[in-house]
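Researcher: I'm preparing a figure for a lab meeting and need a structural model of a single chain. I don't have an experimental structure, so a prediction will have to do for now. The sequence is pasted below. Please return the structure as tokens so I can convert it later.
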Amino acid sequence: MIEGITPFAELGIPIYVIPGNHEEQEVYFSGIAALQERYPLVFDLYDADLEGVNLVALRGYHDEQFITKEGFTLEEKEYQETQEKITFFQKQNEPLIFVTHGPPLSETDQDWVEGVGHVGDAKITKMLEETKNKNMLHVHGHLHEHSGKESIFPVGTSLNIASITSYNNKDAPSVTKMIIKKGEIQIQK
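Model: Understood. Here is the structure written out token by token.
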């Protein structure tokens, strides 16, 4: 984690990190602390009220069979708290970026795993379907082979920004750039 984040932290820009299904809590928090000692702009993301845009994170993963021991298992409490944060930030009438590790359950190949089927999180899907803010972008990782894939929900786009390498998808973007301009989120892959 430290090795992967350091090149970005050295840019001197804010870096927001969330745990997924492979991070053990003790290792994750000690890694964040070590990074923050050298790079004060590295943040463990829960939510962030920034000028002109807000970030809300749902930290962890929903399927216990794929979570490391002592990892970040999503419980009903985390979903409720995240929905409350989204509702709170909607009142500011600013773009909202909703960050999760895992994908939503979809009808597209965004969350499709060969031989398994759709592996997305139905509770994330429910949040994307019921949230009233129409100026929200959902970004997630987890399925590296589907980097760059997206689904459209009533609130807007859900985009997989997982891969920083080509993995199994030779056309996968290595960086996803989001530009917030005049209250709109623009995506550049």
